[in-house]
Amino acid sequence: MEKGNPVTTEAGTQTRKTEPPAAQGLSAEKVTLSYGSSPVVSDVSLDLPHGGLTVIVGPNGCGKSTLLKSFARVLKPERGHITLDGTDIRTLRGKEFARRVALLPQSPLAPEGITVRGLVGRGRHPHHTLLRQWSPDDDRAITLALDRAGMTELAEAQAGALSGGQRQRAWIAMVLAQDTGLILLDEPTTFLDIAHQYDLLELCAELNREGRTIVAVLHDLNQAARFASHLVVMDEGRIVAEGPPHQVLTAELVSEVFHLASDIVPDPRTGTPMVIPHERRPHERGAAVG
Amino acid sequence: MTPDRMTPDQSSAADVKPTAPKGYLRLGHHVVLPVERSTVIASLFAAATLLLAAAATLTLGRLGIALGDLPSTVLGDAQGKDAFVFDRLRGPRLVTGIATGAAFGLSGALFQSVTRNPLASPDVIGLSGGAGAGAAAFALLLPGVPVWSGALLGALLAMCLVYVSTGTGFRDPGRLVVAGIGVAALATALTQYVVYVVERDKATVLTAYLNGSLAARSWTDAGTIWLVLLVAGPLAALVSRRLTIAEMGDEISAALGSDPGRTRTAAVLLSVALAAGAVSVAGPIAFIALTAPQIARRITRGAGPRQLLSALLGALLLVLADLASQQLTLFDDLPAGIYTMAVGGIYLGYLLTREWRKGTL
């Protein structure tokens, strides 16, 4: 499937070609999000490009994960609303939404005693009903998801006995088994060593080329710039910049948002912008915290 | 379309009629439910053992019904001693015991799944203690009112206290256990106070109740707890699937289209109703709610709350404890709750040590 072709989701919904691009995929309109009283994300509007690989970056506590959760319908906006193909996601039924958008959160919990296959199978939940907890596509979706995540050989292993990297791949497989056109990933590379980080990012790029819309929160700016088609930079609950990485990622931006002096050079393999931090003298350290 | 898209392939879907694979129970076209083979085998085994224990309860001892007369007695054809033993002495006690044990087991299975904590059970977090205190308080203050209503009120009150005092509802297992221990202590204090101030003969009756006993139960008690079980059981089955999804954390659960908050609330309410019902007919029998789902988890593979098996094992444990209480003449009619407490205490210690060694506590 070529990039940009309409994505057929399990529900059989075709993205409408006649509508303007803004109405396709997920959009936030003036969204304010908070835990308790203080807002974490204030008045943010963002269209996640349909068919794109969007990466959201920003310093710790900038609200990037919080924003991602609101796109996944996990967190309810205090003000504003989120739309999927033009429909407010709060008006969609939970399972209907879950057949179109999947989320891999930062710290999911593997139930005691579950096998990898069992875990991945739970990704099929949105395709089931109360009395029909099985659908004809289950086996195929699960087998394929295990294969894509490189977990086929570990399918019968206990999820609790996996290494950090294997466990993360098992969760990725669960999300893939959900078989959605849109996949949201919250810091998916966190528990992985560097080779597995790139494996995972390449997998995301591959899924994106096949027509899925991918949105990931990442910490590593160089990885973000290398894989993103659309880069969103957040700071203090707002969006500071968005666009193609080579336009967005500048030394000024890195200095302003991350309080880090740096040079931006082209990645020798891909030509994407790469951040080379300057040496930091003792009095400069920790400035990013303030 | 590339072959590795996961959406249904129209051509193959048309000529191959899909059938549910192994591991599913299929009833017609619209009902397909996952069933673990090991769980089915364990459940059948538990049910068979329960039947044996039930037969032993009716046949053993001085007043026992002869094994050959058992079928006709159960069918209501017996006269004289056998009829008396079945209708008045052991029959109601056994039937109450089966449903009470099942209610405790199911209650514990729901609770452990909700809290993701193998040590959380209605016993440990003060539900049974609250029920006991409520029953005791009613016995003292409102002697005319049935004890079960006090137990129910006490259980609900204790759960409200736990819910409020954790600050995060039933979300955080650690806080839940700490708050539950506090509430259980409060409840014990209240219960002991009542035992202390009421007259001696009443206190003896109350103590027997507070230990949990099946002695002298009537068909009314049996009817009450079976009613609770038959209402709450199917509802628990309905919430089961969502509960297995909620076990993976609130975010995944919400992202899979389930509402974790509502699922949890429903499961806790069912668990409370079952435990309160069980406590009100048999007293706060210790540890069945904790151990039955734990044993269920250990004798089967896979994940999930295993509600039916937990209920069967709960019934089996209580019937066995009551059998011991009736037949071990060495200890002369000790309440069944004391047997379950002794065995359960050892088991809890074992579990705690194991969790501690694994570093998960």
Write the layout of secondary structure elements.
The complex is a heterodimer of chains A (290) and B (361).
Chain A: E1 26-35, E2 38-47, E3 53-57, H1 64-71, E4 79-84, E5 87-88, H2 94-98, E6 101-104, H3 116-121, H4 138-148, H5 164-177, E7 182-186, H6 194-209, E8 213-217, H7 221-227, E9 230-235, E10 238-243, H8 245-248, H9 251-258, E11 262-266, E12 273-277
Parallel strand pairs in A: 3-8, 3-9, 6-7, 7-8
Antiparallel strand pairs in A: 1-2, 1-4, 4-5, 9-10, 11-12
Helix pairs in contact in A: 4-5
Chain B: H1 10-15, E1 24-27, E2 31-34, H2 37-59, H3 70-74, H4 80-115, H5 127-141, H6 147-166, H7 173-197, H8 200-211, H9 219-246, H10 250-255, H11 260-282, H12 288-299, H13 307-327, H14 336-358
Antiparallel strand pairs in B: 1-2
Describe the protein's architecture and organization.
The complex is a heterodimer of chains A (290) and B (361). Helices cover 27% and strands 24% of the residues of chain A. Chain A is an alpha/beta fold and 290 residues long. Chain A has two domains: 23-100 and 181-284, Rossmann fold, CATH 3.40.50.300; 110-179, no CATH class. Chain A has a six-stranded mixed β-sheet with strand order 6-7-8-3-9-10, with helices on both faces. A four-stranded antiparallel β-sheet of chain A has the order 2-1-4-5, covered by helices on one side. Chain A has a two-stranded antiparallel ribbon with strand order 11-12. In chain A, β9 (230-235) and β10 (238-243) form a beta hairpin. Chain A is globular. Chain B is an all-alpha fold and 361 residues long. Chain B has a single domain (35-64, 90-358), classed as ABC transporter involved in vitamin B12 uptake, BtuC (Orthogonal Bundle). Chain B is built from 14 helices and two strands. In chain B, β1 (24-27) and β2 (31-34) form a beta hairpin. In chain B, α4 (80-115) crosses α12 (288-299) and α9 packs antiparallel against α11 (260-282). Chain B starts with 9 loop residues before the first helix and ends with a helix. In chain B, 50% of the residues are buried.
